Amino acid sequence: MVKVGVVGISGYSGLTALEILLNHPQVRVTYVGADSTTGTLSDIWPRLNGRTNLVCAKYDAAAAIESCDVIFLAVPHGISKKITPQLIKSGRKVIDLSGDYRLRDSRVYQKWYGEPHTDAVNLKKAVYGLPEIYRVDIAKAQLIANPGCYPTAAVLGLSPMLCAYGSAVESITIDAKSGVSGAGRKAKLELSYCEVNENFKAYKVLEHQHSPEIELYLSKVAQSRVRVDFVPHLLPINRGILETIYVRLKDKISVKALHTVYKRFYKIEPFVRIMALDAQPELKNVVMTNYCDIGLALSADRKLAVITSVIDNLGKGAAGQAVQNLNILCGFREQEGLL
Does the structure show a pLDDT above 90 at 168? Predict the structure, then answer.
């Protein structure tokens, strides 16, 4: 039995991680902490009433270290890099759901997150927690940088294409849509019900902080520089991400060959499902799960590939993927505790 702690319980990712972990047969949740929100979990989240007697305390490193083997950090960016060094030094394993350890260069981090990175040593050591690409490294890691939600859908959607046809790619455009929970639980006017309901809009056009993360890990897959045009949109729904990815090609390709490439690439992956050629993925089929569904289509001239990649932003895009990483880290069956 692995003892696990969750820091940042007041947010949606923290809650989702806790709910999965409470039902995990190989895990015992031994610590719950937050920066300011404290009290019994049933008071913080009434939906947990009767499911746990855990009490959320103000985060205390000594208490977390003493009671846990693995610690989930479901906190906003900027906080993880302050508390991770002590956890790592103590020998604890950390799965960070924030953006603090995803980018390998502190200068890039400062440019996109607007503040200096104060833990350059662990930034270099962190393993990117996308199991389908980095499973072997995850199993040996002490610090896992859980991927962002948009990058998860993008990298899973594009990796087979880049591996098989990378030299033929001329341009990549990612048209991404996310439910409101992707912005977190904080109170903001633009996220209030009347502003979001019956509305649809683009935001942070070509300047979203997930852009460098997408380009970094696609470049690693392709083993060459990959550039994308990334435009996120806000959907008037609670959760889910659908990305329509347009790949312009120099040469013609076959849709059947492309489909075969994707089926082979993800043949053994438990959480990636490739749609039949006459079908496209839908949000309703992945919400509340850890699955990524991918659909493929090709233009009449066979030089424009359209890849549709769909996930739950709180599942495969955050907490579900974090638990998948925990399973790999601890040698459990990868699907343990997950839908």
Answer: yes
